[in-house]
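Amino acid chain
________________
===
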Amino acid sequence: MTANDQEIEAKFLIMTPHRLILKLHEQGAQLAAPRVKEVNLRFDSADGRLMRERIVLRLRQDEHAVLTFKGPAQADRSVSIRQEIEVRVDDFAAAHRLLEGLGYSVVVIYEKWRTTYRLDDVLVTVDELPIGNFSEIEGPCEESIRQAALKLGLDWDARSNDSYLGLFYRLKEKKKLAATNLTFEELSGQNFSPADLGLYPADETG
C-alpha cells in the first residue's frame, strides 16, 4: 500500500501471463509474494448503502486474514486513486462475526490466484480469475505506474480502472450469467472474451 492510506493503481487484461512473468524477470523484478489463493468476502448493510456510495468493506483470506476499507475512487483520473485502509486480523472467523454483529452481511464472494512482484517502486501482480488473467500495477503516482507498464510492454491505453467486481457485474449483465459470486466453482467451464469484458488485451498490441 502506498503512503497516506492511498491506493493508486491501474489494471490490465493479460492474455499470456507467462510472458509477463518472463518480462518481469528480464526487468529485474523481485518476487514479493508467491502465488496464493485469495478468498474475498465483500460486506454491505441491509440497505446496500456501501455499494451505492462505492465503498468497499472486505475481509480477505490468503496467507493471512486482512480487513480492508476502500473509499470511492476519485472521478476523472487516468488511474484508480482511492483511500485504502488495511488491517491484518488474527482470526478470520471472528472478524466475520464481528462484521455481522455490526449489521453487515456478505453480499458477494470473489476469488483469485495472485502472484506479486516488486519492480522498482511499484508492485505488479499476476492475477488469475474465473473471468480471465489480469495484472495490477500499484505505485506512488501515476507516472511510476505508466513507466512500469512501458517496461513490461503493456499497452497503457488498454488499462482499466474498474474493480474485479465491477468487471464481473458488467459481464453478468451482458452474458445473463446466473452466477452470484465471482468464484471458480460458480464459473467453472465458462470462457469469456476480451469483448465480453469490454476490454482489450494489454499484452497483444500488434
The mean pLDDT is 95. The chain has one domain: 3-197. The longest strand covers residues 30-44.
